[in-house]
Design goal:
Blueprint (H helix, E strand, L loop, with lengths): L12 H11 L7 E2 L6 E2 L17 E5 L6 E6 L3 E4 L5 E3 L4 H7 L5 E6 L2 E7 L6 H25 L13 H16 L12 H10 L7 H18 L8 H4 L1 H24 L1
Parallel strand pairs: 2-3, 6-7
Antiparallel strand pairs: 1-8, 3-4, 4-5, 7-8
C-alpha cells in the first residue's frame, strides 16, 4: 500500500509523552476541598471507630472551626503532622503523581497557599488515568513495532516465522480485511501486542535483556485492561502495581529508542 498519512512516530515519542506530562493535571482525579470528609484534630482518636469514615484510608484533620487542615489521620498509622511531601501543586502533572503513588499514597493539592483538594492512590482508577496509561502503553507498542521493522528491513515479514501457524493465519485474515478496507500498512500493523513481543523475542531482540521483555509483558496486560475499560486498580494491592508499571513504561520507552537508534546506525 502506498502511504498517504504521516507515520505515527513522525511525532517524537519523547515530545508526545512530555505533552502528556504537562497537559493533564493531577487535579482531574482529586476530591475538591469542599467534598473532603474531615475530622476535628482534637478528635482524631475517634476516627478509627467512626463508621461514617470507614471507607477512607486518609482523613484530613482540621482546627476546631473545620476551616484549616492541621494534620491527617492515616488508617493503621494514626495521626501525622503535615510534611512537605504531603503537598503537590494542583496543576502538577497527573503522571508525576502516578509515578510516586506507591511512596506517597496521598497528596494535598495547593492553589497558591490554599488546599484545593486531595488526591489519593484510590483515585488512580478514574477516567483521566485511563487516558494517561493508554498513551504510555501505545507509545511503547509503536516503538516496539518500529524496532521490529528496522530489524526486518530486508524482509518485512521475517518476524512472522516466530509465530505459530494459528497466529499467522489470524494475522493474514486481518491483513486481507485491511486490504479490502484500504487500511493495510503491513502485516505487523495487524498483529497483537503480545504477538509483537513474541516475534521480537524470536528475532533475538531481547537477548541479554529479559528484564525488558518482562516489563513489556506486564505492560501488554495493562494495555488490555485499559483498552477494554477494565478496572485495573479495584483494591490497594492492584493499585500499588500501577506506579511500577508507569515507571517501567518510561524506562522501556527510553530503552527501545536506544535500540532503534543502534539498529538504524
Amino acid at each position: 500500500m502506498n502511504r498517504w498519512a504521516s507515520q505515527p512516530l513522525k511525532t517524537s515519542a519523547n515530545d508526545f509523552l512530555a505533552a502528556v506530562r504537562s497537559e493533564i493535571p493531577v487535579s482531574l482525579i482529586a476530591t475538591p476541598r469542599a467534598d473532603l470528609r474531615c475530622e476535628r484534630a482534637c478528635r482524631w482518636q475517634e476516627v478509627e471507630a467512626n463508621a461514617d469514615l470507614a471507607d477512607f484510608d486518609q482523613v484530613p484533620l482540621t482546627d476546631d472551626e473545620g476551616l484549616r487542615i492541621e494534620g491527617v489521620f492515616v488508617r493503621g498509622t494514626g495521626r501525622l503532622e503535615l510534611r512537605e511531601n504531603m503537598f503537590m501543586a494542583a496543576d502538577a502533572p497527573l503522571l508525576s503523581f502516578l509515578e510516586s503513588a506507591d511512596h506517597s499514597r496521598f497528596r494535598f493539592l495547593l492553589v497558591d497557599s490554599t488546599v484545593s483538594g486531595m488526591a489519593t492512590i484510590s483515585d488512580i482508577q478514574k477516567l483521566p488515568v485511563y487516558s494517561v496509561l493508554f498513551s504510555l502503553v501505545v507509545a511503547v507498542e509503536m516503538l516496539l513495532m518500529e524496532w521490529i521493522r528496522k530489524k526486518c528491513r530486508d524482509n518485512q515479514d521475517e518476524w512472522l516465522v516466530h509465530l505459530t501457524k494459528s497466529q499467522r493465519g489470524n494475522i493474514e485474515k486481518h491483513w486481507q480485511d485491511a486490504v479490502r478496507e484500504n487500511l493495510a500498512i503491513d502485516r505487523l500493523s495487524c498483529a497483537a501486542f503480545g504477538q509483537e513481543i513474541q516475534a521480537a523475542m524470536g528475532l533475538g531482540l531481547f537477548d541479554k535483556h529479559d528484564d525488558q521483555r518482562t516489563k513489556l509483558k506486564a505492560l501488554e496486560q495493562l494495555r488490555h485492561q485499559v483498552c477494554h475499560a477494565t478496572e485495573f486498580a479495584p483494591n490497594l494491592a492492584q493499585a500499588l502495581k500501577i506506579p511500577f508499571q508507569v515507571r517501567d513504561a518510561h524506562s522501556v520507552t527510553l530503552w527501545l529508542q536506544e535500540q532503534i537508534a543502534k539498529q538504524s546506525s
